[in-house]
């Protein structure tokens, strides 16, 4: 029987990229759910988000969230309601369909704002946080969801913690360093960036789809309930990435003290994970961060504007 997959949040960055990536396997029937169904390319069955629960699925992938830091900032405390509302709806669905698999897109922000070293298998959630600090709210909402999921071991739930993600369908109106980089390449303008050499681990769709495939394979043979970190073969420093992009594309850049990039979850010098537990599930990333970014940027540059 074909595997029936629902993707919630299909107009977001990760959701949009998964609609395309999961369709490569023709044994899947993918249904996309969104608040604006008309914004989803008609390559799959598209429904309004409020219709979720009316049809049966084997796998539900929750991509509902906010990737643009400016929007996270503007949402304020509403981020808690958005996260909990749809998480609860999917949990209600699982209570009625206990054999189904729920894959939730979580975030490395669950570990707080202080990132001086990479996350490892021993890294704990922060024991003390400032709940009045808006920069903490996104991570808090994701932590609460993960806590609820671990408290339901009888259900098949896997949280995928995404640290940094890049694909050719990224929203180019956002305020992220990687968005500014893409716009500079695409528009042949000068990229203005701050002097800090931050380190990021950019996962891309081919590796995310591979991890999802391994999760599904494990679920087919045994119950699953866990949180896994998504990682590439190797992270990359900002200036090493800029040098590599400059050699492949026509990129010009300069250092400025304030580039206007928004960090809604706190500035992080180091933001990636060395927790490779996903490897025990069969996951072996294909790309290093720099190669993945170049691969996706090449596809983006070929797409019509």
What does this protein look like?
The chain is of the alpha/beta class. Helices cover 35% and strands 19% of the residues. The protein is built from eight helices and 14 strands. A seven-stranded parallel sheet has the order 3-2-1-4-5-6-11, sandwiched between helices. Helix 3 packs parallel to helix 4. The model has no long low-confidence stretch (mean pLDDT 89).
Q: What order do the strands of the largest sheet run in, or round the barrel if closed?
A: 3-2-1-4-5-6-11
The main pleated sheet reads as:
7 strands, parallel
Average pLDDT value?
89
Uncertain residue segments: none
SS summary, helix count:
8
Order of helices and strands: EHEEEHHEHEEHEEEHEEHEEH
**Category by helix and strand content:** alpha/beta
**Percent helix range:** 25-40%
* Amount of beta strand: 15-25%
Condensed summary:
With 305 residues, the chain is an alpha/beta fold. The chain has eight helices and 14 strands. It has helices at 13-22, 69-75, 78-96, 134-150, 177-187, 205-221, 238-248, 289-302; strands at 3-8, 28-34, 45-48, 59-62, 101-107, 156-162, 164-165, 190-193, 199-200, 202-203, 225-229, 236-237, 252-255, 270-271.
Layout of secondary structure:
Layout: E1 3-8, H1 13-22, E2 28-34, E3 45-48, E4 59-62, H2 69-75, H3 78-96, E5 101-107, H4 134-150, E6 156-162, E7 164-165, H5 177-187, E8 190-193, E9 199-200, E10 202-203, H6 205-221, E11 225-229, E12 236-237, H7 238-248, E13 252-255, E14 270-271, H8 289-302
Parallel strand pairs: 1-2, 1-4, 2-3, 4-5, 5-6, 6-11, 7-10, 8-13, 9-14
Antiparallel strand pairs: 9-12
């Amino acid at each position: 029987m074909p595997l029936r997959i629902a993707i919630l949040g299909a107009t977001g960055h990760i959701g949009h990229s998964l609609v395309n990536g999961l369709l490569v396997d023709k044994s899947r029937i993918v249904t996309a759910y969104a608040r604006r169904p008309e914004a989803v390319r008609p390559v799959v069955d598209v429904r309004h988000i409020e219709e979720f629960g009316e049809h049966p699925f084997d796998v539900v992938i929750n991509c509902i969230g906010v990737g643009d830091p400016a929007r996270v900032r503007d949402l304020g405390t509403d981020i808690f309601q958005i996260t909990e509302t749809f998480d609860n709806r999917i949990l209600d669905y699982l209570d009625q369909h206990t054999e189904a698999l729920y894959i939730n897109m979580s975030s490395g922000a669950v570990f707080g704002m202080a990132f001086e070293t990479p996350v490892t298998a021993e890294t704990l959630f922060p024991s003390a946080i400032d709940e009045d600090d808006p920069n903490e709210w996104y991570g808090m909402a994701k932590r609460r969801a993960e806590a609820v999921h671990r408290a339901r071991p009888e259900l098949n739930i896997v949280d995928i913690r995404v640290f940094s993600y890049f694909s050719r369908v990224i929203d180019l109106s956002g305020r992220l360093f990687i968005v500014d980089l893409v716009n500079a390449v695409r528009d042949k303008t000068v990229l203005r960036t701050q002097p800090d050499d931050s380190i990021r681990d950019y996962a891309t769709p081919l590796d995310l789809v591979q991890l999802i495939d391994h999760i599904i394979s494990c679920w087919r043979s045994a119950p699953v309930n866990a949180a896994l970190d998504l990682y590439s073969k190797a992270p990359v420093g900002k200036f090493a990435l800029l040098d590599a992009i400059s050699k492949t594309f026509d990129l010009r850049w300069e250092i400025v003290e304030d580039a206007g990039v928004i960090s809604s979850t706190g500035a992080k010098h180091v933001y990636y994970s060395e927790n490779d537990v996903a490897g025990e599930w069969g996951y072996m990333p294909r790309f290093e961060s720099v190669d993945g970014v170049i691969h996706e940027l090449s596809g983006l540059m070929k797409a019509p504007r």
